[in-house]
């Protein structure tokens, strides 16, 4: 009898472990989290990485016995940081209710800037209005600390923080434009940001919020790139060292474990993956420019250029000249360009 009981218990434990494994597989191994906000200034959420399955919840309460007493027909909420609004929502409310619950996915705050493992303090505003837009349920305003995951950091650039130069056409270019078409030269966009990281284990996303940054970079890179191609028409560097950049996704045949590299996501944003070069560092200087590596405003070391393009990307000499023209003579070591 005892043996049978032990056997049943063992089978039960095996079944429970199997169910647990299935559950972990469906959830990706990490359970979704919902943080209920008290609104008293003590609220915080940890491990923030703009995950769509994680949420912030807040209950807006009526001033009177219910929303009809307040004459409130709409509940509103917005989230701001450093004077910028990153999220807003509104919803019709049932007048017989005395509270309304806002549920905000972390993914709605994907552009919220923050350093890896550090707090970004957001401000939440929630209130009610009548049909004429008058505030009828008093506004609740409070701060929430979002602690970014150590593997996640975000920065963004706009027309104020970016360096944007008008590119004037030379007399030759003006002549060639007249002959070959009406296309005007693009502005030169340069983005330089310092971001907090956790050594070699952080993914940094740079969001381009400039007026025409997306089109400027797309034009600089050309329209013949396919997913996984190495980008040469725009330059990316980490801590002053050029790094390989890929279009839409990295080429796993080119990138090795420990490499620092960037990906242009095709939507105006860039993702930079830290590597061995950042091991032990708490900050990284990011440089992105709508100019070829060989003509960038940063003067890159020739050996670094050879390392990423001729070695890692396995460019041949003709490939280098095709990508960079005669600038290859001055941007790579002469010995690296020799075919023997």
Structural topology:
Elements (H helix, E strand, L loop, with lengths): L1 H26 L6 E3 L6 E6 L6 E7 L5 H4 L3 E8 L2 E9 L6 E7 L13 E11 L5 E14 L3 E6 L5 E3 L5 H10 L7 E9 L6 E6 L4 H9 L13 E4 L2 E2 L1 E4 L13 E4 L4 E5 L9 E7 L12 H11 L4 H8 L3 H4 L2 H4 L3
Parallel strand pairs: 1-3, 2-8, 9-12, 15-16
Antiparallel strand pairs: 3-6, 4-5, 4-7, 7-8, 10-11, 11-18, 12-17, 13-14, 13-18, 16-17
Could you walk me through the main structural features you see in this protein, from its secondary elements to its overall organization?
- The chain has 340 residues and is an alpha+beta fold.
- Helix content is 22%, strand content 34%.
- The protein has 3 domains: 1-31; 34-148, Immunoglobulin-like; 153-337, no CATH class.
- It has 8 helices and 18 strands.
- It has a 5-stranded mixed sheet, with no helix packed on it. Strands 9-12-17-16-15 form a 5-stranded mixed sheet, with no helix packed on it. The protein has a 5-stranded antiparallel sheet with strand order 10-11-18-13-14.
- The chain is elongated, with a radius of gyration of 27 Å.
What is the average of the pLDDT values? 89
In total, how many domains does the architecture comprise?
Answer: 3
Distance between the termini: 81 Å
Strand order of the largest sheet: 2-8-7-4-5
**What is the subunit organization of this protein?**
single chain
Secondary-structure class: alpha+beta
What sort of overall outline do the alpha carbons produce when their principal axes are compared?
A: elongated
Rounded to an integer, what's the Rg over CA atoms? 27 Å
| Helix fraction bin | 10-25%
Count every beta strand, where a strand is a DSSP E run of 2 or more residues: 18
What's the total helix number? 8
Low-confidence stretches: 1-6, 8-29, 169-182
Largest sheet: 5 strands, mixed
Order of helices and strands: HEEEHEEEEEEEHEEHEEEEEEHHHH
Strand content: 25-35%
